[in-house]
Amino acid sequence: MDADGDTTAAVATPTPETETKKRKPTETRSVVWQHFEKIYGPDGNLIQGKCMYCPKVYAAESKKHGTSSMKNHTKTCIHNPHAKETRQSKLAFASNSESETVLTNWVFNQDNVRKAMARMIIIDELPFKFVEGRGWRQFVQEACPMFKIPSRWTVNRDIFSMHVEERSSLKKFFKKHSQRVSLTTDTWTSVQRINYMCITAHYIDVQWKLNKKIISFVPIQSHKGDAIAKAIEVCLVEWGLKNISTITVDNASSNDVAIGFLKSKLVSWGCSFVRAQYLHMRCIAHILNLVVQDGLKMADSAVKKLRDTVRNAVPYRTVFEAYDGHDASFKFDLGDSVLHDYDWVYLESFLPLLKSFYEMTIRISGSLYITANCYLTEICDLGYLLSEMMGSQNLVEKNMGIKMKEKFDKYWGDPEKMNFVIFYANILDPRDKLEYMEDQFTQLFGEDKGKACFKKVKSQLASLFEDYVNEFSAPLQSQSQSQTQSQSQSQTQSGKGLPPLGRSQSKFKNLLKKQKLESGVLDGKRSELDVYLGEAIVDVDDGNDFDLLMWWKMNGARFPILSKLARDVLAVPISTVASESTFSTSGRVLDNFRSSLTPKIVEALICTQDWLRGPNEPIAVEENLDDLEKFEKEMENLRIGSSVRGEDTPTTQVSDFDDFDITS
């Protein structure tokens, strides 16, 4: 008994403390709680979960129910914006054209979002590491938590795949339409001093829309003619382009060598000699720059002072003038770069002249509109301006005019050194045709040489048109025959055949139509070109806009062959530099990010960005600077007003930048 009693005494009896002690509750780790609100009972235990998107409530005791029911509900809840499949389609606005949007059904797709992100990086010139930034990841988590953000290496592959896809699509377009294109070349430089050559194709499509596509962006070893020619040849072979109208290049001797090589290469590929002679187009903006630079050399010292001054001191011009009255010796400390009063007067007299050159360069350097038809008019206006300068009473202006005229005559004083395509473009503008050309030639080249040039232009345009007739009359004839056969078959099948006399007349008319198509004749013995030139010019007021391409689109049926010639001629760019960078003093330089990439990726980024952007979407950040400065001034005024009143916050509360009007 003692033993048993000792044993009983040794057994521990439960105490109140041990009875009330409970296990520490575990945290809920299921992802469903990102979509459900937790509901606790009186004892503090989790008992239910309420959907954040609808009134549905589910039992959620962990030991009895689990989270499977709630997980299934998140996939089928019609109000859940993150569900992959719902019983109710989501609506989203999608771009249907340049100015229209339409409502479409939207369902989350990982691949589509990845492509959209790659497109954003290309268009907005973002670095690949952008996708690994904390801010971007937080934004995606809030906006689209189902999207799994790829790494920068995956983005790299996505971008290159998109480049290959877009390139293949563009190549199919060129092949399908046998599109004749004009090329421009430009050079860029990376921070490692690697030279890149950019080749851009310009063309007017079947809808009479002007297009430009960068088709090559590759490093070149040198600027010698053979290296340039080889790079262009490789580009044309890769794209399968053999129908080249012109190649616009800077005025350099190396480009003369390159164009000579390419001209013989195109002839060997099947280009006619008639068209090959128009291959070389000199950049008008480059020549205009040479003319202006020669004139500014007459005022070299004053211009140098001005350039040194404008970097820092233009806003303080009056300060220097006032300081000169107190201490005239301060200029000795600053050196010869300080402008004197007579320097300001001297330079200000050039402003109207330089403004004319600036506006002229802007007009001829656009890439979003036709420029070939204004070449002749612009150089005629420039020649007239130089004549006025040479007759000026101001000796400096007169000497500048003489100096500029020498350079002007070097490139534009002899019509034999000019590409006649610029004259054809002027003729194919229905507002001009031949109306003013003879007088313009007389002004530029003198009476005798001008009249001879006028006759030669008309003769060679007729030869070029005849070359187009030989190429396109057969396709037009076969197209007409196929239409006639289809009409005849439909009439036979319907049992309503024409009487014999009707069929005989139809055949005779088709024979006449065939003969006219083969010779380009429309009216009697007159060709399409003769009919076009014989009609009156289109009278348009200077204040009214005239859509040249729309005119040809509307009249293409009347001039089926001449309109093809117009498409090729009017697409010719007369400048290699876009207007937004014509006056850039820093040149074309790749940024640090693109300079750090391999040449293949650089080409993929540059080309694909150009293809993805709309034709009317140039980058013009400078246009927004005025609005930004106005915004900063308004914010500064708010801050100053608050500090004057001793307030910690602005008097006008701005809840969001989108609510702040910077345009008023």
UniProtKB/TrEMBL annotation:
GO CC term, one of those recorded: nucleus
Coiled-coil annotated residue ranges, if any: none
BED-type domain span: 27-89
GO MF term list: DNA binding; protein dimerization activity; zinc ion binding
Region (Disordered): 1-28, 476-501, 642-664
This protein's record includes keyword Signal: no
Keyword DNA-binding assigned: yes
A Pfam cross-reference name: hAT-like_RNase-H
Subunit structure: Homodimer.
Official protein name in the record: BED-type domain-containing protein
Annotated organism of origin: Centaurea solstitialis
